[in-house]
Amino acid sequence: MIRTTPVRRAALVAAALAALAVSCGTTPKPVAPAGGRATAAATAPATEAPESAGPTAASGGPGALPDDATRSPAPTQDPYAPESGEKVRDAFATLQATLNDSCATDCSYFLGRVHKELQELDMAMKADPKGPGHFPEPIARMAELNETLAGDASYPNLKKHRKELIGTRDFINTWMQDHPDDYR
User: Fold this and answer.
1) Which of 43, 110, 147, 162 has the fewest CB atoms found within 10 Å of its own CB?
2) Residue 49, SS3?
3) Do 45 and 30 contact (CB within 8 A), yes or no?
4) Could you read off the pLDDT of 104-134 as tens digits, one per residue?
């Protein structure tokens, strides 16, 4: 029978913990929500969030490395925050996907999603190579909605302005249907 000394036992435990730390330190693959796009929050593990934020102050000294800086906490990700870089046709398609939905199942999710899709379409129209002047009515309608919401995308505010939110979605859907060359 082999006798294990306390030093050996500690070394074995340390080796096992090191192996677990290495195997747990891998980056998971992005999780795509029902909408199909992976979110930024889903692609970065929680342990890397502080490193994704920029340094706030460098620790002094000639031998200091960039990683030696104190980092600020990462901003909280809003699941309904719009993403940028989408083409008008893609943003319009995801907005159209909300047409058959309603508040019947999950009103908070539905209103948040409609708001997000409208914001993404607005950004796509403004960034379109044809220029924002190519989409004057939808952009003006979004400006009215954004003024009404006053930057508050919380559920209580979206519920309060539900009629304006859904009306804007329906107006833009009709306008885009009347201008099929603008999104194909």
Assistant:
1) 147
2) helix
3) no
4) 889 999 999 999 999 999 999 999 888 888 8
